[in-house]
């Protein structure tokens, strides 16, 4: 603790105001600081990282294994440049003239954007399959955002696929690269 040590008066001189040596013992304060630090560290809940599970399919045994999908169950989303999102319902098949060319819609990640289109499609058809395709001009943030939209809208079936030549032909001239 704190202690005041008086100095001894010298003999034969008139007593003056005594000069005191002051010494403060910091040991109890340091002990208290460490106790508080330990208490707060042990009682704090640690933040858990927020992650989204992404289940990837097993690799096919051979390259010719493809999954056929009905055009009526498909919704294709193409990520473009400047956070633009293009989507159409069905599949683009230029080699089959009996299949009509799908209508390409343009939107973004705003509140009235792709989320509303996904929710509307989910109400019309209970189990759509969403095909996500990224153009070479799309950013990594766009891919993260569209995966977040899949999670928010509770899409059960979606796949990340490559952009085909039929998809490239549907894109506006500014997006083709």
Brief synopsis:
With 177 residues, the chain is of the alpha/beta class. Strands 5-4-3-6-7 form a 5-stranded mixed beta sheet, with helices on one face.
Polypeptide structure, described:
This protein has a domain at 71-170: Nucleotidyltransferase, domain 5 (2-Layer Sandwich), CATH 3.30.420. The chain has four helices and seven strands. It has helices at 27-43, 114-124, 140-152, 165-170; strands at 3-6, 20-23, 74-79, 85-89, 105-107, 129-134, 157-161. Strand 6, helix 3 (140-152) and strand 7 form a beta-alpha-beta unit. The protein starts with a strand and ends in a 7-residue tail after the last helix. The model has no long low-confidence stretch (mean pLDDT 80).
Distance between the termini: 78 Å
Biggest sheet, strands in spatial order?
Answer: 5-4-3-6-7
Total number of helices: 4
CATH architectural name of one domain: 2-Layer Sandwich
SSE-based structural type: alpha/beta
Tell me, what's the shape?
rod-shaped
Could you name the key traits of this structure?
five-stranded mixed β-sheet; Nucleotidyltransferase, domain 5; alpha/beta; rod-shaped; 4 helices; two-stranded antiparallel ribbon
Helices and strands, with pairings:
Layout: E1 3-6, E2 20-23, H1 27-43, E3 74-79, E4 85-89, E5 105-107, H2 114-124, E6 129-134, H3 140-152, E7 157-161, H4 165-170
Parallel strand pairs: 3-6, 6-7
Antiparallel strand pairs: 1-2, 3-4, 4-5
């Amino acid at each position: 603790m704190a202690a005041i040590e008086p100095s001894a008066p010298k003999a034969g001189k008139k007593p003056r105001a005594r000069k005191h040596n002051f010494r403060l013992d910091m040991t109890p304060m340091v002990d208290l600081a460490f106790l508080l630090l330990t208490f707060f560290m042990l009682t704090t809940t640690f933040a858990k990282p927020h992650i989204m599970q992404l289940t990837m399919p097993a690799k096919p045994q051979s390259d010719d294994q493809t999954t056929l999908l009905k055009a009526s169950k498909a919704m294709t989303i193409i990520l473009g440049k400047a956070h633009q999102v293009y989507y159409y319902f069905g599949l683009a098949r230029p080699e089959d003239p009996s299949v009509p060319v799908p209508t390409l819609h343009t939107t973004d990640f705003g509140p009235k954007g792709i989320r509303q289109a996904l929710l509307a499609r989910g109400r019309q058809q209970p189990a759509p399959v969403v095909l996500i395709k990224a153009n070479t001009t799309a950013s990594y943030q766009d891919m993260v955002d569209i995966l977040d939209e899949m999670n928010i809208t509770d899409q059960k079936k979606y796949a990340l696929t490559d952009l085909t030549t039929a998809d490239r032909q549907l894109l506006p001239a500014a997006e083709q690269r």
